[in-house]
């Protein structure tokens, strides 16, 4: 039985990711924490943000009509506090967000969360997560 | 009718221009792209001006101006620079109401905070660094009879600064005052949510600074912030924001081998020991206010006391009293002096707070009060308002671990000193903390045990110049608000001088 996904995307997010890919090229996310624009998924050109052993790959968004999946990363320490929740990358109107690529579009990626069900969690609890090392 | 009239209305203390260009080399310069973006007031959700949309070429233009100004500015005497800083402070003081209203209109905060806290602190900050730079001295070390090590402070040259939107003027001044006091020239990128209140201030003080010393380029982070942070032409980058962008900025800085200072937020515990409620007196009343400080600036403060830790014995009584205090928070038009809590700074910030109210409920946290968006009706119906919210839960919940940056406090009970410290330190961050007790031995031990850069003891949210501010752990690198900040903006030059006429004898 395959593992349930930890991260998903809304149709609006997929549409914006397609647009941003056309403008910029292949993309990645790194989930932020902390102040001001924190707790937002930051969208970068793939490889722009250097991930390493202190980051975990929480999922790859496979989006129709996109050649490459969009990797979603988070720092490993932050993941410890987030791992029991399923994340959906959504979009709202807005601006800003560090150097994230969507802000010139007047949009902002936003995380929506839910608790994993008992069935999902039983499968995920002890399954390893890949680091960037 | 509000106490202060909205900018642009007849009789207002503030008239914003309809369009703002970049401030480069002492004048307004049109953006290279010819493009502008709309600036919205969160008070009503309506557009009130347009702002230049900067790009790498605008940043380069600003860096040209800063580099042209840097040699002369770096050689001005500390006395001259201090006089200019003091004049800026005097000019701001003479215009404090206008600056406060301008900031409130752009950011949404209650005008009483801008008027009595943010802008007076900004004014004092210029005076503090005027004094600090005058009093700073190098040193002469007599290493032996014939050898002296002289140490001189030299400016770094041209520095980049990226400013957050929660205190658009105060946070800019925290970075600007030490940088220019130390003899540097600056290229500053305001947050795109609050791009013009700093230009409103610049218009008031612009004749006091030589052209090119302070340059301000607006725009989106990816288009203007990134070219600034990654430029090989800056000698330092200072950033207040969040962890992912902080890491990216360090990554760019590593390519240019320049120092960074970072302030990246927190999840500050505010700890109330049993003895707080020993008497129903002024101190107890102060402690209740201290808890309610989570609503300051609508919670949009890096040090928001967003985790309330209350000792078991007083839990029920204390929570009853702070809930009543929280329910008494008056929301309303930020331009009214009686308004205690205004609007969240932007629509996406509002959305993020609402998403956290949602996950808090889903994780089983109990809403004690608030928990939803507030509709204030009338002309404020389109504004971004959230009810002050108290959650009850446990420290493993995400609302206890992530900075919501809204008027939301997550409360849990603790049992004894060790348990309090364990919960307080169970966080990725370490920026601020509060400790409340009548026993100064407990206060001292708690203050030293908490892994945070600032531990308010029987107070909260005070930011006087002279008290170092900065983070442990993931909350960042470096300190602000203290004369040690001058070190972040200076090189150390050592002249090692031999006064001996005799050779060593090696060759």
TrEMBL record, chain A:
Pfam entry (one): DUF779
Q: Which InterPro entries match?
A: DUF779
Q: What is this protein called?
A: Unannotated protein
UniProtKB/TrEMBL annotation, chain B:
A single Gene Ontology molecular function, please? oxidoreductase activity, acting on the aldehyde or oxo group of donors, NAD or NADP as acceptor
The regions listed as transmembrane in this protein's record are: none
Query: What InterPro entries does UniProt report for this protein, alphabetically?
Result: Ald_DH/histidinol_DH, Ald_DH_C, Ald_DH_CS_CYS, Ald_DH_CS_GLU, Ald_DH_N, Aldehyde_DH_dom
- Organism this protein belongs to: freshwater metagenome
Tell me the Gene3D superfamilies matching this sequence: Aldehyde Dehydrogenase, Chain A, domain 1, Aldehyde Dehydrogenase, Chain A, domain 2
- Residue stretches making up the Aldehyde dehydrogenase domain: 28-494
Q: Which keywords does the record carry? A: Oxidoreductase
Quote the protein name from its UniProt record. Unannotated protein
One Pfam family matching this protein: Aldedh
Q: Which family does it belong to?
A: Belongs to the aldehyde dehydrogenase family.
């Amino acid at each position: 039985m395959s593992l349930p996904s930890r991260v998903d995307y809304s149709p609006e997010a997929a549409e914006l990711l397609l647009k941003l890919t056309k403008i910029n090229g292949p993309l990645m996310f790194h989930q932020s924490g902390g102040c001001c624009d924190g707790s937002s998924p930051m969208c970068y050109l793939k490889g722009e943000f250097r991930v390493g052993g202190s980051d975990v790959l929480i999922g790859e968004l496979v989006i129709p009509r996109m050649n490459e999946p969009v990797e979603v990363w988070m720092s490993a320490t932050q993941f410890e506090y987030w791992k029991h929740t399923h994340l959906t990358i959504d979009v709202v109107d807005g601006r800003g967000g560090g150097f994230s690529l969507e802000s010139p579009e007047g949009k902002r990626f936003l995380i929506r969360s839910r608790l994993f069900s008992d069935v999902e969690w039983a499968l995920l609890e002890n399954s390893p997560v890949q680091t960037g090392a | 009718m509000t106490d202060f009239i909205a900018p642009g209305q007849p009789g207002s203390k503030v008239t914003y221009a309809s369009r703002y260009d970049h401030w480069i080399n002492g004048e307004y310069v049109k953006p290279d792209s010819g493009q502008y973006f709309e600036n919205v007031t969160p008070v009503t959700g309506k557009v009130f001006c347009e702002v230049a949309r900067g790009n790498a070429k605008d940043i380069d233009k600003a860096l040209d101006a800063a580099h042209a100004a840097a040699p002369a500015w770096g050689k001005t005497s500390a006395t001259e620079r201090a006089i200019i800083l003091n004049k800026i402070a005097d000019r701001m003081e003479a215009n404090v109401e206008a600056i406060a209203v301008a900031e409130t209109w752009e950011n949404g905060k209650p005008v009483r905070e801008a008027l009595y806290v943010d802008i007076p602190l900004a004014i004092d900050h210029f005076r503090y660094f005027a004094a600090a730079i005058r009093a700073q001295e190098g040193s002469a070390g007599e290493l032996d009879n014939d050898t002296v090590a002289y140490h001189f402070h030299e400016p770094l040259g041209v520095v980049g600064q990226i400013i957050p939107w929660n205190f658009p003027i105060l946070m800019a001044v925290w970075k600007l005052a030490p940088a220019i006091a130390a003899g540097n020239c600056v290229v500053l990128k305001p947050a795109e949510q609050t791009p013009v209140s700093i230009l409103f201030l610049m218009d008031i003080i612009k004749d006091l600074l030589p052209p090119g010393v302070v340059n301000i380029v607006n725009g989106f982070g990816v288009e203007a912030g990134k070219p600034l942070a990654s430029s090989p032409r800056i000698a330092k980058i200072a950033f207040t924001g969040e962890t992912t962008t902080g890491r990216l900025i360090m990554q760019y800085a590593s390519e240019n081998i320049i120092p960074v200072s970072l302030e990246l937020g927190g999840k500050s515990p505010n700890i109330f020991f049993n003895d707080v409620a020993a008497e129903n007196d002024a101190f107890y009343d102060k402690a209740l206010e201290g808890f309610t400080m989570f609503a300051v600036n609508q919670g949009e403060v890096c040090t928001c006391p967003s985790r309330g830790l209350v000792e078991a014995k007083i839990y029920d009584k204390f929570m009853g009293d702070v809930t009543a205090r929280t329910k008494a928070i008056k929301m309303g038009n930020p331009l009214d002096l009686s308004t205690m809590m205004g609007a969240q700074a932007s629509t996406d910030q509002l959305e993020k707070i609402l998403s956290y109210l949602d996950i808090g409920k889903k994780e089983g946290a109990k809403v004690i009060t608030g928990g939803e968006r507030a509709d204030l009706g009338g002309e404020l119906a389109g504004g971004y308002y959230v009810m002050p919210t108290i959650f009850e839960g446990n420290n493993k919940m995400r609302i206890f671990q992530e900075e919501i940056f809204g008027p939301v406090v997550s409360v849990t009970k603790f049992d004894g000193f060790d348990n309090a410290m364990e919960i307080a330190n169970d966080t990725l961050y370490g920026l601020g903390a509060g400790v409340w007790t009548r026993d100064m031995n407990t206060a001292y031990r708690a203050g030293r045990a908490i892994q945070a850069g600032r531990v308010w003891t029987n107070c909260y949210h005070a930011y006087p110049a002279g008290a170092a501010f900065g983070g442990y752990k993931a909350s960042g690198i470096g300190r602000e608000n203290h004369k040690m900040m001058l070190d972040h903006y200076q090189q150390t030059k050592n002249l090692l001088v031999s006064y001996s006429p005799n050779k060593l004898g090696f060759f």
